[in-house]
Amino acid sequence: MTRATPSTRATPSGILFFVHGANETSEGLVENVARIEDQVRARGWDVTVVAPEWRRRSDLRLGNWKKAVQRRGRPSPMPVPVLRAGVRKDAVMKLVTNYFEDRREVLVDLLGAQMLSDVVGYHAHRASIHEILKQELADAAKAARGRPVLPVALSLGGIALVDLLGSWPEAPVEACVTVGSQAPLLYTFDAIPSMPYDEADPPHLPVSWLNIYDSRDFLSFLAEPLFRRSDGLASVVDLRVHSGKDFPKSHSAYWELEPVWEAIATAFTWKRVEPLTVVEARSLGFEARKAPAPRADR
Predict the structure, then answer these.
(1) Which of 97, 112, 160, 218 is the most exposed place for a label (fewest CB within 10 A)?
(2) What is the phi/psi pair of residue 95, to 5°?
(3) pTM
(4) Where are the domains of the chain?
């Protein structure tokens, strides 16, 4: 079949089911939901935003990791010289180590203490998180009365959503969207229980998955190259967006980007009974490729 293009598709109608990230406070969630609702309203969509506060209602508790970092007062300034071409790796590492010795908080922040806490905390409380999201999704589907429910998950929310849908093939959704998510990286660690890592024959969700990332958001990762199929279907497609923001502001800059909303509008039209093909995905501007056919001698 021929898919609707941005110029021909109907105005989205249904429920946008927002799955927030790990460190979302009640106040932060309200602000995020308000930003999303503002964008939906500005576009004239017939879409209701549902955003369960799953972290507060689950057993997940994340403390302030900065209290675990040693401090020795104000670090002394250290000029960073211009490095000549061919400089040895150990010289670079010595410079980096000296600079960050008394700046460990900055280093840990850059390397993603949040990501580490996400992984450990999520796996410790996976059952309670899934229980809440599963019930909330089921309730949203009833409220939608036949209209689509599109889950859109940010950061750790993407990990929880992908893992949930991987273990729930009959979930009442037709597609899903992850934004600034670490789910692809965790898959390479074999750390998504419902989707065991398999390079030769990767697992797939029961619905099409749109993954949105920003190369300036160091907590976002590509998913499409990890889940390519040889049958021409595009189970996962990527969309790169450009916020122009520095990290970590780039991690929360997605909602004001027009391409994000164009892609979400497209995802509202997807149906699980009409799998997206690589050709269709590429025509819509998404990143998608066909995997080589498996060798007969394997």
Answers:
(1) 97
(2) -60, -45
(3) 0.83
(4) 13-62+122-283
Q: Which CATH number fits domain 13-62+122-283: 2.102.10.10, 3.30.110.30, 3.40.50.1820, 3.40.50.300?
A: 3.40.50.1820
CA nearest neighbour of 264 among 284, 234, 250: 284
User: Looking at the DSSP assignment, which residues form a beta bridge with residue 239?
Assistant: 212
What Rg do the C-alpha atoms of the chain give, in angstroms? 21
Q: What is the pLDDT of residues 249-274, one digit of tens each?
A: 898 999 999 999 999 999 999 999 99
List, in sequence order, the alpha helices (H) in the chain: 26-42, 54-57, 89-100, 104-111, 113-124, 126-144, 156-166, 183-188, 258-267, 278-283
pLDDT tens for residues 30-45? 999 999 999 999 999 9
55's CB contacts (< 8 A; 6+ apart) are 20, 22, 24
Torsion (CA) 181, 187, 192, 193 in degrees, nearest 10: 160
Hey, which residues does 211 pair with through a beta bridge? 178, 238
